[in-house]
Amino acid sequence: MASQPPCAPSAPEAPDEGKETVSHLCKEQLPLVPSGDIEHLSPKLPYAALVRAYGRFKLSIADARQSQLLPPFDPLKVDKGSLPPKKHPVPEKKFWGSQESLSKIPYQIMKGHGHIVSSCNFCVDDTRLLSGSYDCTVKLWDAVDGSVIRDFEPRPSAPVSECSVTADSKRVIAASYDKTVRAWDLETGRLLWKINHETFIASCKCSPDGKYVVSALDSERGICITDAENATTVSHIKNHHSRSLTACCFDPDSQKVASVSLDKSIKIWDITSQATLLTITKAHSSAISNCCFTSSGHFLCTSSWDKTLKIWNVHTGEFRNCGACVTLMKGHEGSVSSCHFARDTSFLVSGGFDRTVAIWDVGEGYRKLSLKGHSDWVTDVAISNNKKWVLSASKDRTMRLWNIEEIDQIPLVIKYKKALGSKVKECEVCDRTFSIYESDIFPETLTKCVFCRMDAKDLLAEASSSSREEDSLTRECGQATDD
């Protein structure tokens, strides 16, 4: 045992009851002090004086346990006689992020994976969570208490690159670096089918209607669309990109597939026509890491290693590079690895190499809040259907479930919005709320949100183009008649 601590300053003697308590504690603790130490302190000191001096160290029972002077208390031990008396109830622990004092968001940490958590999803009406990991497992979690409900078996033999779940929460899909895609029944955990590919699968997603599964194939630089019911191939497009794909996803109508790649390009593939509808080359200045559609299917968000996010019009290929949305390019200090729209497109969430989760106001394009707490890069993010929760997966082997229900009441968010000089209006077309700013030209004339304004602009452009074509055709017909 190490040398004893110095005696504390003398204090007034306690009542008799206190003396009995101290004496009882000392009688329990004295056998733990080697006899040689006692003799060294004072070989002629009376035993009673030694007991009083030892009591003045103010060593409480709790401190003694922490110093391992008493055997640790086992909460699972059946013997009730060994339970200590409950003097002070333990206060309920609150989970807070490590943000600034004005931007604290409650969260819960999910621990259970032994390696990088590569993918995360909400399912079963936001009561369950799904995750995939480099520890070769796909897990189903209880969103309330954070416990693992099921490990889906048989497990892949290599790291899981991505997992997905159908909108009805009946099937779970997972892609692995063992070149397979597996499907399980979510309720029973039974393996439904397994597909073997000749190359690594970087990404996999279920279509919103549950009919298809799309996989991003690495060395083939293509996509494979599979029937989710019988695992038959619907389309297999090789050399779709010039370099390896990083992610793919379906549009809300389950008819188009967007894919992004290390070649910095975006492609939209149509399942019905079996053709590429749109190609955007050099969409970013570095590799594109992820993509996601808005609920209308008119816009696509892409995240990139160039530290930016961009929102694209999938009909025209136009990047929203004007207005407040340009601030989407200034939200992360490192590569952006993931992005996800809320169900009603009211906000967007992104995760990045800087270990943060950014929450964006989509209509105005500013970052509302940055959630901090992960100790390593954030690999994936998801938003619950009720918009109350954000789920993040990280290289630190954990997931975090953030409660953002009261985000608009956070002082830092209110302060920032006031600084922008914004006023809230309701869109006359889609009823979505949007903000107008003092810096806007004729703000009183704005009655539509930015998405409806862009849709109107596209329709006007299409009508103008159609009118020009009709005029041209009329002129040609007139010339032919004259001839």
UniProtKB/TrEMBL annotation:
WD repeat residue numbers: 110-151, 160-194, 238-279, 281-322, 329-370, 371-412
InterPro entries: PQQ_b-propeller_rpt, WD40/YVTN_repeat-like_dom_sf, WD40_PAC1, WD40_repeat_CS, WD40_repeat_dom_sf, WD40_rpt
Family annotation (CDD domains): WD40
Region feature Disordered, mapped onto this chain: 1-23, 463-483
Keywords: Repeat, WD repeat
This protein's record includes keyword Repeat: yes
UniProt-listed SUPFAM superfamilies: WD40 repeat-like
PANTHER family named among the record's database cross-references: PTHR45048, WD REPEAT-CONTAINING PROTEIN 88
Protein name: GPTC1 protein
Originating species: Crocuta crocuta (Spotted hyena)
